[in-house]
Structure formats: structure tokens, C-alpha cells
Write a structure and sequence with these properties.
The structure is a single chain. A six-stranded mixed beta sheet has the order 2-1-3-6-4-5, with helices on both faces. It contains eight helices and six strands; from the N terminus they run H-H-E-H-E-H-E-E-H-E-H-E-H-H. The protein is an alpha/beta fold and 237 residues long. The N terminus is likely disordered. Helices cover 41% and strands 14% of the residues.
Length: 237
């Protein structure tokens, strides 16, 4: 088997995890995980935000699949993979629910309350860094490919660039998108103070990509790359 550019020899202690991942999703996942750094840092908590949830399903594919469930599926896989490498992980939601408070009544109020609660959870976590998982959509169905956005900090940018590179090298070599600073009006990212990135894993408006994003194996590949991006980045906390 020819080695991919992002494949390298890994420590023996990762062998069991690689065997498990290979059985689940084939050698593409092994290639992604091979870039993992050494032992996980104990001073960092990886906060994973599966975007949307509950009444707010987010973007919806032509087949009627909302992004909220896809986001959660990828987040759960990231949680499992990161756990294999000793990472302390917290998911902002573990079910398809909104985090809005009981005082919120309209959908608009619930969205605002939900985001405020997520920001609160992030800000109260010492040593937390945030990975927010989303899916994209656009009126032109020809657009495809994952893209990473970052809070305007040097560490966030470095993490985003690393993750964007891995997404291209290990999953989608044709993807020429670049990591970009997150828009200033994005509520969650503008109301937290930690290192953070937001990953649009693909376009639900693109028929073929939307189908892949619902597949368990492809979600696992994405999760492996996102986890690799975290473990191979440096956080100065």
C-alpha cells in the first residue's frame, strides 16, 4: 500500500486505536490519525460544540436532513477518538436539544438564549478551547468542501490553518479553501475569550457532499481529522 503524504510511523501505544479506526472506516482514517502529536496535554479541555439543536435544525439538505444531527454525530465521534488519546473532552450538547432557557418563547429568543448558554459554558471552563462543528449551505448547489474559521487570535489561526490543511491532505485534495477569520457578527465566537475554531464540514446544498455527510464512515473520517488537528496544535494556556 502506497503511503499518503500525511502518513508516518506512529508510537506503538497508538496501535490498538488505529486498528479500531481502520476497521471502522478504512485506511483514510489511519492516515489522518497518524499526524497526532505525542501524549495529550492535561491542561487543556477540548470543548466541542455541535451547532444548532432542538427546534433550530440549522441548514437542511435537499433530502430534508438538518445539520443539527450531523453536527452531533461528528462531535460524538470526535469525543470518542479524542478520548482514546487521553484528551479531556466536554460536549456542549449530547442530544438533539436546544440549550435555551425556559424564559425563551419564540424561535428567535430560543436561538439567542441557546447561544448565550453555550458562551457561558465555554467561558466558565478553565483551560478550555472550542471546536464548533457546523455544515454549510449556499443557493448555488455547485459549491462544496470543508472550511475552517477562527477567532482573531494567533493560536486560533494556527489551529485553523493546521486543520484546514489536514482536511485537504487527508480527505479532499481538490479542496482549495483557506482558513479564514470568523465574521465579527457571529454571536458565539464574539462572546467567548478562549482559543476557538468553527468548522463548516461541507455543503448540505451540494447533493453528493450532503449524502457523504450523512454516512457514518465519512463522519468518522472528518472526526479523525478534526481530532488530529487539535492534537497536533500547540496551546499556550
Amino acid at each position: 500500500m502506497q503511503k499518503h503524504p500525511c502518513f508516518s510511523v506512529i508510537p506503538a501505544i497508538l496501535a490498538l486505536a488505529l486498528i479500531t479506526l481502520s476497521a471502522l472506516a478504512g485506511w483514510q482514517v489511519r492516515r489522518a490519525v497518524s499526524v497526532f502529536g505525542p501524549a495529550a496535554r492535561t491542561n487543556v479541555t477540548l470543548l466541542i460544540d455541535p451547532g444548532h439543536g432542538g427546534e433550530d435544525g440549522g441548514a437542511v439538505s435537499a433530502a430534508g436532513v438538518p445539520e443539527s444531527g450531523i453536527n452531533l454525530a461528528i462531535a460524538r465521534k470526535c469525543d470518542l477518538l479524542a478520548g482514546l488519546f487521553g484528551v479531556r473532552v466536554e460536549l456542549l450538547r449530547t442530544e438533539d436539544v436546544s440549550l435555551a432557557g425556559p424564559e425563551a418563547e419564540t424561535l428567535r429568543e430560543k436561538k439567542r438564549s441557546d447561544l448565550a448558554r453555550r458562551a457561558e459554558l465555554v467561558n466558565q471552563t478553565a483551560g478550555g478551547v472550542l471546536l464548533s462543528i457546523h455544515q454549510n449551505s449556499y443557493p448555488d448547489a455547485s459549491y462544496s468542501g470543508a472550511q475552517v474559521f477562527y477567532r482573531p487570535t494567533a493560536e486560533s489561526e494556527a489551529w485553523a490553518v493546521r486543520t484546514q490543511t489536514l482536511l485537504r491532505d487527508c480527505i479532499d485534495p481538490a479542496n482549495r479553501r483557506q482558513a479564514k477569520e470568523v465574521p465579527s457578527d457571529l454571536y458565539l465566537m464574539s462572546h467567548i475569550g478562549c482559543t476557538a475554531i468553527l468548522v463548516e464540514c461541507g455543503f448540505l446544498s451540494h447533493p453528493e457532499e450532503a449524502l457523504r455527510l450523512t454516512e457514518d464512515g465519512y463522519q468518522l473520517q472528518l472526526a479523525a481529522v478534526l481530532t488530529a488537528g487539535f492534537l497536533s496544535s500547540t496551546f499556550d494556556l
